[in-house]
Design brief:
Blueprint: H1 28-39, H2 48-83, H3 90-98, H4 100-118, H5 120-129, H6 139-158, H7 161-186, H8 205-215, H9 232-261, H10 273-282, H11 284-318, H12 336-349, H13 354-382, H14 396-415, H15 419-445, H16 459-469
Helix pairs in contact: 1-7, 1-9, 1-11, 2-8, 2-9, 3-4, 3-13, 4-11, 4-12, 4-13, 4-15, 5-11, 6-11, 6-12, 7-9, 7-11, 10-11, 11-12, 13-14, 13-15
Length: 470
C-alpha cells in the first residue's frame, strides 16, 4: 500500500497549512485512532452480519469486503489527501476536477451524511446506560440526557483536535482490550466446524451488505482535516495503513472467536450480542467491560466524526463556498461555527431510528463516493504531473479498474434502499442543488462576507505553469 512518489512534479503545497503554525498539529498515533473511530470504533454493530448470513458469510465479508471497498477508498484518500493537504478534503478534490458546483454538492451530501451518522451515537450511548438508569429510557429525561451528552462531547471538540486525538487513543485501547482477553479465554472452546455454517437460502442480503458497508466506510473523512496534520505527505498514508490493519483485525478476530466458541443461534446475533458472549466466556465482569467499552466507543465515534464535519465546513469557507464566518477559529484553533452547526444537526436528527440512520447516511454517502471516484480518475488523466507526494503504484487504466468494483457495490447498496429512504435522500440532494446558486447570489449581492484564503494553492494554475515549463 505504501509508495511515496519521488518524481519531479509541480508543487501544489508542501506540509500542512501555513495558517495553522500557531496551533499544535496532529501526530501519527492520534491520527490512527481518529481514523479508527471515523471508520469503526470496535466490533460493536457487526453482529447483524451473522444474523443476516451466518458465520461463514460474516467472516468472509469482513475479510474480503475491505479489498473491494476499504482498501481502494483508503488508497484514494492517501493520494488525494497528500495532493491537497488542506482542510476540506474531498470537497477540494471534486471542486478541482468537476468545478465548484459539484464540489459544493459533495460537501453538502458528505456533511449531511456525517451529521446523520453522528446523531446515532448519543442515542446508542444512552441505550447502554438505560439498564442501570431506567429513567433515561424515554420521555423528557431521555431528551435532556441526549442534549447534555451532546453538549459535553461538543465541548471536547471545541477544546482542540489534539485533545480529541488523545481521547480517541484512550477510548480505543479501552474498547479493544476486552476483546483481546475474550479471544484468549475463547481458544479452548473453539470448534472450527462452526465457522463454515452457511445457508444461502436464508440470507438477508440487504441487512448483510448494509452492515458491511456501514462498518467499513468513511476512510475519506480524515481528509477534511488534512491541514491540521503534522507533515501530512508522510503521516496521512502511514496512518491510513495502520488504521486499516487495526480495523480489519478489530472486526475479524472477535467474529472468529465469537462464532467459533459458542453454539450458533443466528437470531440472537443482534446489536449488543458480544456482551452476552463475553458473559458466557468470561463471566459478568467481562460482560460489564464490553458494555462499558461499547458505550464509550460511541463517544469516540462522535468526537471523531464531529471533528471531520466541522473542519470540512472550515475548508469550504476557505474556498469561498461558505461565508467566511465558517472559517473563524476559536482560541484553541477549532472551527467554532462548524462545530455549532454540526451539533445542531445532531440534535435535530436524533429522533431517527437506528435502521433509518444507517440507510439514509449510506445512501447519501454513496452519491459522494461516486463523485470522489470520478474526481480521482479525472485528475489522474488531466493533471498527470501535479504533485502527488504519495501515489498509488498503478497507471491511469489501473486507477479506472480499481474504481469499478466499489462503484458496482454502490449501485447495489442504492438499489437495496427503501422508497422512503430514497425519497428523503433525493430531497436532500435537491436542497443542495438549490443552496449553491442561492449562496452564489448572496455572494454577488455581498449580503455575507466570503473570502478565499491566500494560503491555498490552485491546481489549475500550477498545472498550466508546469505545461509552460515543459
Amino acid at each position: 500500500m505504501m509508495e511515496h512518489n519521488t518524481s519531479e512534479y509541480v508543487v501544489l503545497g508542501e506540509g500542512s497549512s501555513p495558517q495553522l503554525d500557531n496551533f499544535q498539529k496532529v501526530s501519527i498515533i492520534p491520527l490512527v485512532f481518529l481514523i479508527f473511530y471515523e471508520v469503526s470504533g470496535g466490533p460493536f454493530g457487526i453482529e447483524d452480519s451473522v444474523k443476516a448470513g451466518g458465520p461463514l458469510l460474516a467472516l468472509l465479508g469482513f475479510l474480503l469486503f475491505p479489498f473491494i471497498w476499504s482498501i481502494p477508498e483508503a488508497l484514494i484518500t492517501a493520494e488525494m489527501g497528500t495532493m491537497f493537504p488542506e482542510n476540506g478534503g474531498y470537497v477540494v478534490w471534486v471542486t478541482s476536477a468537476l468545478g465548484p458546483f459539484w464540489g459544493f454538492q459533495q460537501g453538502w451530501m458528505k456533511w449531511l451524511s456525517g451529521v446523520i451518522d453522528n446523531a446515532l451515537y448519543p442515542v446508542l450511548f444512552l441505550d447502554y446506560l438505560k439498564s442501570a438508569i431506567p429513567a433515561i429510557g424515554g420521555g423528557l429525561p431521555r431528551i435532556i440526557a441526549v442534549l447534555v451528552l451532546t453538549v459535553i462531547l461538543t465541548y471536547m471538540n471545541y477544546r482542540g483536535l489534539t485533545i480529541v486525538g488523545w481521547v480517541a487513543i484512550l477510548l480505543g485501547v479501552f474498547s479493544l482490550l476486552p476483546f483481546l482477553y475474550m479471544g484468549i479465554v475463547a481458544i479452548p472452546e473453539l470448534k472450527p466446524s462452526r465457522w463454515v455454517v452457511v445457508d444461502l437460502g436464508s440470507v438477508d442480503w440487504g441487512l448483510y451488505l448494509n452492515t458491511l458497508f456501514w462498518n467499513l466506510n468513511y476512510w475519506d473523512s480524515i481528509s477534511t482535516l488534512s491541514g491540521e496534520v503534522e507533515n501530512p505527505s508522510k503521516t496521512l498514508p502511514k496512518a491510513l495503513f495502520y488504521a486499516l490493519v487495526l480495523v480489519i483485525f478489530g472486526y475479524f478476530l472477535p467474529l472468529l472467536f465469537g462464532t467459533g466458541a459458542i453454539p450458533l443461534h443466528r437470531e440472537l446475533w443482534t446489536d449488543g450480542y458480544f456482551s452476552d458472549i463475553a458473559k458466557i466466556l468470561g463471566g459478568v465482569w467481562l460482560r460489564s467491560w464490553v458494555q462499558a467499552a461499547s458505550a464509550l466507543s460511541n463517544m469516540g465515534m462522535f468526537v471523531a466524526e464531529m471533528s471531520s464535519d466541522s473542519f470540512q465546513l472550515l475548508g469550504m469557507a476557505e474556498r469561498e463556498m461558505l461565508p467566511s464566518v465558517f472559517s473563524k477559529r476559536s482560541r484553541y484553533g477549532t472551527p467554532l461555527t462548524g462545530i455549532l452547526f454540526s451539533a445542531s444537526g445532531v440534535v435535530l436528527l436524533s429522533w431517527l431510528s437506528f435502521q433509518e440512520i444507517v440507510a439514509a447516511e449510506n445512501f447519501l454517502y454513496c452519491f459522494g463516493m461516486i463523485m470522489e471516484f470520478i474526481a480521482f480518475v479525472k485528475l489522474r488523466i488531466k493533471y498527470p504531473a501535479a504533485s502527488r507526494p504519495y501515489k498509488i503504484p498503478i497507471g491511469t487504466f489501473g486507477a479506472i479498474l480499481m474504481c469499478i468494483p466499489p462503484t458496482l457495490l454502490i449501485f447495489v447498496v442504492l438499489a437495496l434502499a427503501s422508497l422512503k429512504i430514497m425519497a428523503i435522500s433525493l430531497l436532500a440532494v435537491m436542497i443542495g442543488m438549490v443552496m449553491h446558486p442561492c449562496l452564489e447570489y448572496t455572494k454577488r449581492k455581498r449580503w455575507f462576507k466570503f473570502s478565499m484564503s491566500s494560503k491555498l494553492q490552485d491546481i489549475h494554475n500550477a498545472a498550466h505553469h508546469q505545461c509552460n515549463e515543459a
